[in-house]
Amino acid sequence: MLKTFSKTDIGRKRRINQDNVYSCEVPLGNLPNLFIVCDGMGGHKAGDFASAYAVKAIEREIMLCEETEPVRIIREAIECANAEIFEKAASDEQLRGMGTTAVVATIVDGTLIVANVGDSRLYIINDDIEQITKDHSLVEEMVRIGELDRSEAREHPDKNIITRALGVTDSVEVDFFEVELKKGDIILMCSDGLTNMVEDEDIRMVVKAQRDVVQIVEELIKIANHNGGSDNIGVVVIESDEVGK
């Protein structure tokens, strides 16, 4: 059984909300459930269009896909969404240069399967907090090659420059991760509007202190806004009683 809650918030500084979230706890196509966070980028309306379009396209393609293997299903859906967004950006001057991050997840027999493009994240939280996805960002690349440490990366002026997104090029590289869930694991999916405002350990403390998934989401958004709310905030929280084999 899954308990989930998802929400976006415009934050305190932006005039438009370019984050979109999606939760489906019941079977969709050949997947038993589906969760998505997309954080759009681009000019006025373009980022909002890109993230909303990505969610709808991924949902549609998964519903229609005849594949049975979850990674293939999700990969095909993301690649299709990428191609469609790229085509629309090329054909409409107002949408030129748009794109969106995407984190897509499903839980199959106690195994969490995650796809990632961009710098939106998925965490597993229990006694500690673990970031499962790896950011596709300029600053993350600098950390990987030793030019920055984690503390410097958090305050770096280029931290919002991403190196991979849906809709920017005619093809997209998708990273996949698989995790066997343990009893008590809470799954958090979010845009960088949360993680730029709230430290990982503070996120863990909020998750452990709240009674249910709704309270977790509401409290995380509240704290992100209290800490400045410099960006839109998209959050999905999943509590599952499934455990890996």
Note the main attributes of this structure.
Phosphatase 2c, domain 1, alpha+beta, 7 helices, 245 residues
In DSSP terms (H or I, runs of 4 or more residues), the helix count works out at 7
Query: Per CATH, what is the topology?
Result: Phosphatase 2c, domain 1
Q: How many independent structural domains?
A: 1
Helix content: 25-40%
Strand content: 25-35%
Could you characterize the architecture of this molecule?
This protein is an alpha+beta fold and 245 residues long. The chain has one domain (14-190): Phosphatase 2c, domain 1, CATH 3.60.40. It has helices spanning 46-64, 70-91, 138-144, 150-155, 192-195, 200-209, 213-226, and strands spanning 2-9, 19-24, 34-41, 99-100, 102-108, 111-117, 121-125, 129-131, 175-180, 186-190, 233-240. Strands 2, 3, 4, 5, 6 and 9 form a six-stranded antiparallel β-sheet that branches. α1 packs antiparallel against α2 and α6 packs antiparallel against α7. The two termini are 16 Å apart. The mean pLDDT is 93.
Question: Summed up, what is this model?
Answer:
The protein is an alpha+beta fold and 245 residues long. The protein has helices at residues 46-64, 70-91, 138-144, 150-155, 192-195, 200-209, 213-226, and strands at 2-9, 19-24, 34-41, 99-100, 102-108, 111-117, 121-125, 129-131, 175-180, 186-190, 233-240. Strands 2, 3, 4, 5, 6 and 9 form a six-stranded antiparallel beta sheet that branches. A five-stranded antiparallel beta sheet has the order 1-11-10-7-8.
